[in-house]
Amino acid sequence: MTSTVPALGTRTAEGSALQAVFLDMDGTLVDTEGFWWDVEKEVFASLGHTLDESWRHVVVGGPMTRSAGFLIEATGADIGLPELTVLLNDGFEKRIDHALPLMPGAARLLAELSAYEIPTALVSASHRRIIDQVLNTLGHRHFALSIAGDEVPRTKPHPDPYLAAAAGLGVDPVRCAVVEDTATGVAAAEAAGCRVVAVPSVGPIAPAAGRTVVPSLEVVDLTFLRGVMTEMR
After folding, report:
1. How many CA atoms lie within 13 A of 84 on its CB side?
2. What phi and psi values does residue 20 have, to the nearest 5 degrees?
């Protein structure tokens, strides 16, 4: 039988500098960074507080404990972190029940990585309950494993999530490519020793050594990722 997959070097990571690909979720694969901010504004409005738009860049891309904790302190809202975390996750789940738009190029990239059997992990600061719901749209089949923010001792910007993904796949972080959309996620990936492709969503991300910044996921494919890894030699 003739394969319908076009030739692109080896079909696996063997023989390539690229051993695995790690993908962030919110703002990278799914267009949901705005959803989180809308939910945060709604929850705090119900508590009698208005969020300042400038705070959006502070809370984007980070763990729930950091973003929620910052908003409690900034507003002086009379609510505890555990209670607020539940309200935010509940509100977000309701949002993505109605619509979960993918970022341009996301579906094509996931299909290509699967077709060429590239080990791929979803690495997010979101909680497991949120990741599992999003995976129903993205497709569980595209990921060898997923790492949630509430499953590691320290989440982004610490390297723990990406180190856990590498350990789970049995690969060297230095030979893994990470696609991220926020400075927080980029910091986590770089601290783990990974090669980073940044696709900024909310705030700007400057190019740097070991980091490639692109305007859209539409320009990222397997050839691009392998080329990024080759540049580090």
Report:
1. 26
2. -160, 160
As a whole number of angstroms, the distance between CA 180 and CA 155 comes to 14
Distance CA 123, CA 224 (A): 20
User: So what's the pLDDT on residue 121?
Assistant: 98
Nearest-5° Cα angle at 60, 54 to 139? 145
DSSP state of 205: -
User: How confident is the model at residue 61, as a pLDDT?
Assistant: 65
Run means of pLDDT, 10 residues per run, the chain, 233 residues: 35 64 95 85 94 84 80 94 91 83 96 98 93 93 96 94 98 97 95 97 88 96 94 60
- What Å distances lie between residue 222 and 128, 130, 141, 159, 196, CA to CA? 28, 27, 18, 24, 14
Sign (positive or negative) of CA dihedral 216, 219, 225, 229: negative
Nearest to 49 by CA among 80, 77, 81, 70: 77
Residue 83, judged by CB atoms within 10 A of its CB (0-12, 13-18, 19+), counts as exposed
Q: DSSP labels for 92-105?
A: HHHHHHH--PBPTT
Confidence (pLDDT) at 49: 95
Q: Alpha-carbon distance 233 to 138, whole Å? A: 33
